[in-house]
Structures are given as C-alpha cells and as structure tokens.
Amino acid sequence: MLQLTVNGRAVAIDVEPEMPLLWALRDHLKLSGTKYGCGISVCGSCTVLIDGEPVRSCVLPVSDAVGRNVVTIEGLARDGMHRVQKAWIEHQVPQCGYCQTGMMMAAVALLAKHPQPTDVQIDAAMTNLCRCGTYARVRTAIHALAKQPVGKTAGHV
User: Fold this and answer.
1) In the chain, where does the domain assigned CATH 1.10.150.120 lie?
2) Which of 10, 28, 30, 47 could serve as 102's disulfide partner, Cβ 3.0–4.6 Å?
3) pLDDT tens across 4-31, in order?
4) 83-147, which class in CATH?
5) What number does CATH give the domain 2-75?
6) pLDDT in tens, 124-138
C-alpha cells in the first residue's frame, strides 16, 4: 500500500510503485480530470501539482509522490471553481478542451510564483501543447488574472 495525499486528503492505494501517477489517479482514485495525452511527458495534458510545482504525471512513478502534496484539477477549489478556471471560461480559452486541465494546472503554478508574469515568464511556464492553438487566449487569461487582486481564494492552492 502506498500512502498519498491527493487534493488535501490522505489516500492509500495498492499499486506497483513504478506505476505512473497518472494511472493511479485516473484508474484507482477515479480522478479523471487529469488527461492522458502522449505518455512521454511532452504534451502536458497530464499535468498535476506536486508540492506546488507542475509535474507531468504520465512519467512520474506513483512512489515519487509518496509524502508529497498532489493536487489535481478536481482539487483546485472545494466549492465552485478556482479563479483560473473562471478566467478560462471568461476568456473562452478552451476549444476542444482536452489539454486544458493541464494548462490550468501550469497556470496556477505560474501565478503562485509570478503573480504578474511577463510574456517571457508565461512562455517559459506554459509548455503544454494545444492542438487547437489557444495559446493567445491562455496568455490573455493569465494577464487578466494578474490584474485581479488574489484575495482569499477557495481550495488547496
């Protein structure tokens, strides 16, 4: 049994330690918001936060998450939506939406480090691939968030 902290709660799962975290989250914990895209850590659809850092869960062994705080898209806000999720809707970022959960997780991590990021910082942090090409909308949403006072936000992040 591996002991994890996922979205603020302790969970125990009986999986092989080398199983990718993505499959532990999706298949064993039924957290399907984290998506499988490429399986080789390129596209970013599987991005989750581990101790506040964006991590590609398709290549990270679940054993590497033991003793660390894992946050998935489902854990961003306890009630309602996280401010990044709201900005994605307001600025009509998603088209097909498949990559967007990973994009949002990367944006949350970026804004935690750089509350008012420059275009260079956004480009460096937002390495997720989007087949629909919503990169300009992603940048617009992030800049809009940078202009808003953070205040008290719900959720784990």
Assistant:
1) 83-147
2) 47
3) 999 999 999 999 999 999 999 999 999 9
4) mainly alpha
5) 3.10.20.30
6) 999 999 999 999 999
